[in-house]
Amino acid sequence: MSISLTRVVKPAVEPVTLEALKKSLHITHSEQDDTLNGYLKAGRVAAEDYQRRSLITQQWQMVFDCYPVGEIALLRGAVQSVESVVVTDEEGNETTMDLSDFIILTDCSPARMLLKSSASWPSATLQEIGGIRISYTAGYGDPEDVPDDTKHAIIIFASFADDNRGVEDEFIPKSFYNLLESDRLFEGIEDE
Predict the structure, then answer these.
(1) pLDDT, tens digit, 9 for 90 and up, residues 56-89
(2) Half-sphere exposure (CA, 13 Å, Cβ side) for 173?
């Protein structure tokens, strides 16, 4: 079964402010603001990729080529809510399923959903690829909801990037990964 995951709506803000980074770097001028904002974004993306999580509220869509069997792990949590499950048949007709037909657990990592035994998938033949689309909102919420260790890791990433401009093949400090490790998801399950 082929599954793809796409970020549909990016986060509106970064978890670490430019002011917090500049304070950490002891920078008082604004000549480097665009560059520093780029480092903060790169730090957030690196943290999200390493942890396999969403930090700030954003929209995701998982796409399946065939009907899922059993439990579905919703990747890139923390999942706040599931908005829709849309089934597209071979004629291109879309059916939006009733979310009450699913058991949806958003209070675990990763979030999980399962079609209830009292419900069933539509009987139509799915289009050849991308016949099932699950849309959901993920992320801790606003910047103040992001764990402090994660925000500190992003500052470390951005500080390192600022200190090593133009230097290729440099490695991100181990402290970046150490701060993120305790909240990292592995292979669709949380590492205990």
Answers:
(1) 999 999 999 999 999 999 999 889 999 999 999 9
(2) 17
pLDDT grade for 120, boundaries at 50, 70 and 90: very high
How many domains does the chain fold into? 2
- Is 104 strand, coil or helix? strand
Range of the domain at 121: 58-138
Residues 101 and 69 in one domain: yes
Determine, yes or no, domain membership for 5.
no
Residue 192 is assigned to a structural domain of this protein: no
Residue 180's H or E segment, with its range, is helix 174-181
Q: Are residues 97 and 123 in the same domain?
A: yes
Tell me the pLDDT tens digit for each residue of 94-118. Answer: 999 999 999 999 998 889 999 999 9
- How far is residue 162's CA from residue 166's CA, in Å, rounded to a whole number? 9
CA quadruple 15, 17, 18, 22: dihedral sign = negative
**Sign of dihedral through CA atoms 59, 62, 67, 69?**
negative
My answer on whether 49 and 64 are in the same domain is no
- What angle do helix axes 33-51 and 18-25 make, rounded to 10 degrees? 100
